[in-house]
Amino acid sequence: MDEVEVSTVVYVPPDEMYDFIVDFPRYANYSEYLEEVRRDGDGSPGTRYSLRFAWWKLSYTAQTEVVSTERPSRLDWRVVKNVDADGHWLVEEVPEEAPPNAETASRVTLRIEYEPGSVNAGSIDLPRFVSLSWVVEKVKPLIRKEATRVVERIVADVEGEPREVDLTVHTGPDAI
Known about the structure:
The protein is about 20% helix and about 35% strand. It has helices spanning about 15-20, 130-160; strands at about 1-10, 35-40, 50-55, 60-70, 75-80, 85-95, 105-115, 170. The chain is globular, with a radius of gyration of 17 Å.
């Protein structure tokens, strides 16, 4: 399994950040490539999300499901078809990292584990003469750039104003 982990500090309490994470359909407002998110459920275990991504001439809908929750600190999820992947959101209160004008702070971490070989060309509608390996190589740098853009937009929405965000990215073998 490969892995990618992205984290940052947000100047809001864990409950507020957790509510934001559960309201996943609004994420389509932050991403250039996520066109739509549909939710079937209330964010508790068993809730399913359909995420429609589009880039270049490609589109793909990922289906995920919430596996377990520990409010306000953790939400575990998994992809339910086409890709062997799962992950979690972790929210930890870190008041020592709050600036003087903020009451508290929370470290928010998204961790994704995936099996690269589980992605197959049949699960993505590729244009003629385009290989999956070519697409993967082109998408890797876009994912890092997009992660930064999305986190900055989320932080601005949650905190009420834009600011520069310190984003920490950790990757495992052959990860993004």
